[in-house]
Amino acid sequence: MSTSADVRLRDGSVARLRAVPYDDPVARDLVARVQQEYVARYGGPDEAAVDPAEFVPPAGVFLVAEVGGQPAACGAWRRHVEGDDPTAVEVKRVYVDPAFRRRGLAQVVVAALEESARRAGYRSVVLNSGDRQPEALALYGALGYTPVPGYGIYAGGAGAVFLGKELESAEEERPWAS
């Protein structure tokens, strides 16, 4: 992915997406916010192990979206090491600050994550969410994600939801190319 991209949101505002290290101060702040969201919804933070090195290209990426210069959203992907498919990535930390919700920003972030994974040569995406995040589940369903087998520390956990999606190849996006 290029270092930054501007995208117009539903309300006409512009979001700037940029890749940053997982341990960048803005990324750390957004990750802390998403962890607080998990505490509010589930009673505790996400306990899945995360190593910042897993989000360094080409093995992964961490995206920050800013609106009006303010950190508004984030999302990341890393190689999915728990499955048997070396062409799969796992999406992590998709979050939109409450002040920036209902503008289409989560959809923009997920689309950018999918595109960057596809460009890095990956063919599928998996993710773990939960039944206390109905808005996230609705978004993923609308984007074509379907149930996949559970993995990691939440496999088989009450309320854990595992979803996946095949990424379109460049040939699928341009059927006229031969």
UniProtKB/TrEMBL annotation:
<feature type="domain" description="N-acetyltransferase">
    <location>
        <begin position="20"/>
        <end position="168"/>
    </location>
</feature>
<keyword id="KW-0012">Acyltransferase</keyword>
<dbReference type="InterPro" id="IPR050832">
    <property type="entry name" value="Bact_Acetyltransf"/>
</dbReference>
<protein>
    <submittedName>
        <fullName>Acetyltransferase (GNAT) family protein</fullName>
    </submittedName>
</protein>
<dbReference type="InterPro" id="IPR000182">
    <property type="entry name" value="GNAT_dom"/>
</dbReference>
<dbReference type="Pfam" id="PF00583">
    <property type="entry name" value="Acetyltransf_1"/>
</dbReference>
<dbReference type="InterPro" id="IPR016181">
    <property type="entry name" value="Acyl_CoA_acyltransferase"/>
</dbReference>
<dbReference type="GO" id="GO:0016747">
    <property type="term" value="F:acyltransferase activity, transferring groups other than amino-acyl groups"/>
</dbReference>
<keyword id="KW-0808">Transferase</keyword>
